[in-house]
Amino acid sequence: MLKKGFISLICLLLCMLLLMPAVFAEEKKTQSVDLTPNAQSAVLMDADTGTVIVDKNKDAKLPPASITKIMTMLLIMEAIDQGKIKMDEKVRASEYAASMGGSQIFLEPGEEMTVQEMLKGIAMASGNDASVAMAEKIAGSEENFVHMMNERAQQLGMKNTHFSNSNGLPVDNHYTTASDIAIMSRELLKHEEITKFTGVYQDYLRKDTANPFWLVNTNKLVRFYSGADGLKTGYTSEAKFCLAATAKRENLRVIAVVLGEPNTKTRNAEVSKLFDFAFAQYSNYPLFKSGDSLGSFTINKGEVSTVPLVAKQNYSILMKKGEATQNIRHELQVDPNLKAPVALGQSIGKIVVYNGDAVLAEYPLESPVAVNKASWWKLFKRTTSNLFHTDS
Q1: Where would I find the H helices in 127-225?
Q2: Which of 9, 49, 255, 341 falls 20 to 30 Å from 241 in CA-CA distance?
Q3: Domain Peptidase S11 D-Ala-D-Ala carboxypeptidase A C-terminal: where (predicted)?
């Protein structure tokens, strides 16, 4: 009797072992539905936190075609922020810039346009000529500008990227990944005004001249997908059809990147699927908006003793829809022993976000200004005023 029972138990265990792979295979299948079956590589990222929601071959090194221009636009926006160029400043097209083939705004050698017009031409019409003209304006030559592009890529942690030109025309040793494209797209979106160019469907250049040029955005999603307002398309026979797109609904902005798609229809459909998935499944719990006051921090023996701290970006937490938020809290943790001198961009602490007692996220904080060490006379006056409660 015991022997029969033992044999029955062994048979039952064998049946379970045979069934288990099928069960796990089915579970894996339902958990990893490929939203981009035709893409060689893809990434879906939350723009605020940088959280990757979906990825497929995200680190595969591939030619990016005109998606290259995201880095070109980033360096243009940073040059504007740094006061190196202005939006209304004129840019002259060299003979070399005007000679670019492919997508272009048909600049004539010696023709002048403003930085703003050049940006329109790059963002909407993917102007190869405008990209080179702006590269020469900022760096003196396209070669110098490409050096800046690669340097900035390294700073952003784009470990699998190398640029060889400013526009993405086919050239040796020019590659990136879906993951790295999402990183530089996120950085570009910190310049919120860029979507005034990337999100417009149609516009004109040379509008008030005898030779107006009609611009139609190469990214059709800005017209046909609700919330889409950028960023950049790309195509060459080698790269196939590529797109780095962004869309925002309510508090959630996402970035979708697809590389190596077979045609524009499939490319747009698969990016739309990524967007649909993000907006159906996720929401953002906002902490601070860009420009919000975060308080201030103290610097010992500095020319100024306190420095106001303002959010330089949106701070939020990516959450599954329906998740409880009542126990989410955050703390501003600033180094209490900061001493002058303090450099611009120096680490001063972090924002720590909790759900109850569990840490959800940490965001580094940097000094928004440089603070030199105060003179002994200033320190003496400050000490005296504090003793007698007078204003310094």
Answers
A1: 128-139, 142-155, 178-189, 195-198, 221-224
A2: 49
A3: 282-373
Judge whether 248 is annotated as a binding position: no
Q: Are 177 and 58 in contact (CB under 8 A)?
A: yes
Whole-prediction pTM: 0.85
Range with the poorest average pLDDT among 259-268, 271-280, 346-355: 346-355
Q: Residue with structure tokens 């071959």?
A: 57
Phi-psi region of 126 (alpha: psi -120 to 50; beta: other; left: phi over 0): left
Task: Name the one residue in this structure whose structure tokens are 């603070």.
Answer: 371
Q: Specify the domain boundaries for CATH 3.40.710.10 within the chain.
A: 41-283
Alpha carbon separation from 309 to 214, 303, 313, 335 (Å, rounded): 44, 17, 12, 13
Instruction: List where CATH 2.60.410.10 sits in the chain.
Output: 289-387
Q: Say whether 320 is catalytic.
A: no
The active-site residue, picked from 41, 126, 272, 367, is 126
Q: Which pLDDT does position 5 carry in this prediction?
A: 53
321 is known as an active-site residue = no
Report the pLDDT value the prediction gives residue 20, as an integer from 0 to 100. Answer: 41
- The pLDDT tens digits of the residues spanning 138-161 come to 999 999 999 999 999 999 999 999
Active site residue 293: no
CB-based burial, 43-74: b 16+ in 10 Å, e otherwise: bbbbbbbeeebbbbbbebebbbbbbbbbbbbb
Q: Are 44 and 52 in contact (CB under 8 A)?
A: yes
Question: Do 174 and 67 touch, CB atoms closer than 8 A?
Answer: no
> Greater confidence, 377 or 307?
307
In CATH terms, the fold of domain 41-283 is Beta-lactamase (3.40.710)
Catalytic residue among 41, 56, 58, 69: 69
